[in-house]
Design brief:
The protein is mostly helical and about 230 residues long. The protein is built from 14 helices and no strands. It has one domain. Helix 1 runs antiparallel to helix 4 and helix 11 packs antiparallel against helix 12. It is a multi-pass membrane protein.
């Protein structure tokens, strides 16, 4: 599911990325056919594997497909597409990641307190919101050229930075609540590191006149690659 979501995103964002990330667009165009087949195969496998768990797991896996379809079409004549509404893209991506990371493990294991599931859901939802908005900050020039009204295009850099810092700050009461319930005990240092890391990369990538390159993908999208070893070491 993770691979298919990323693959679909790279295929559908070619027009915007021609301005924001021409090097990646060139690569995606070269492997477009193979990428399309890979996306289809990964989606089919994700649905089949989820069907072995429960019908609800299938719904979780199918959510990004249904949401992506509804996102691109005009549901009612005279009304804007979901794609044309500021922030909807960020919400869909955040909900997709939160659904997968919170609900799929819950459906497989069962017997987990709903409070714990809700806390996990919020963590991944808000992390995804912050991260997708950071990529919108990077893409602000291309989005303006293409008339795409993302949150950073609407708010501008300064107010976008303030909003990102505010959203990341909601993890402070989150971690206090998790601690009060006695959840994630030995992983608290890793979670605290992730929250602090969020502040650092928000401030780093929202500097005026700064154009991030691949470091944004590695540092932000690749956060789980360097936090996972920390969690495993706990």
């Amino acid at each position: 599911m993770v691979f298919s979501v990323y693959g679909i995103n790279k295929l559908t964002d070619i027009r915007e990325d021609e301005v924001n990330n021409p090097e990646r667009v060139g690569y995606v165009k070269r492997v477009a056919k193979a990428l399309r087949y890979s996306v289809v195969v990964s989606l089919v496998l994700a649905v089949l594997l989820s069907a072995l768990t429960s019908p609800l797991a299938v719904l979780v896996v199918l959510f990004p497909i249904v949401a992506g379809t509804l996102y691109s079409i005009r549901l009612l004549p005279g009304y804007p597409r979901l794609k044309d509404i500021t922030g909807v893209k960020n919400l869909i991506i955040a909900i997709t990641w939160a659904n997968g990371t919170a609900f799929l493990p819950y459906l497989v294991t069962g017997g987990v307190e709903l409070q714990r599931v809700a806390l996990i859901y919020y963590f991944f939802f808000m992390k995804s919101m912050v991260n997708t908005m950071l990529f919108d900050v990077r893409d602000i020039e291309g989005d303006r050229i293409n008339g795409i009204q993302t949150i950073p295009v609407k708010l501008g850099l300064e107010r976008s930075r303030a909003l990102l810092l505010l959203l990341n700050s909601t993890f402070i009461p989150w971690i206090i609540t998790a601690h009060s319930f006695g959840y994630f005990g030995k992983y608290m240092p890793v979670l605290a590191f992730s929250i602090l890391n969020g502040y650092i990369y928000i401030l780093y990538f929202t500097r005026r006149n700064y154009r991030p390159g691949k470091i944004l993908d590695v540092w932000v999208d690749g956060e789980w690659f360097y936090t996972l070893p920390l969690a495993m070491a706990m």
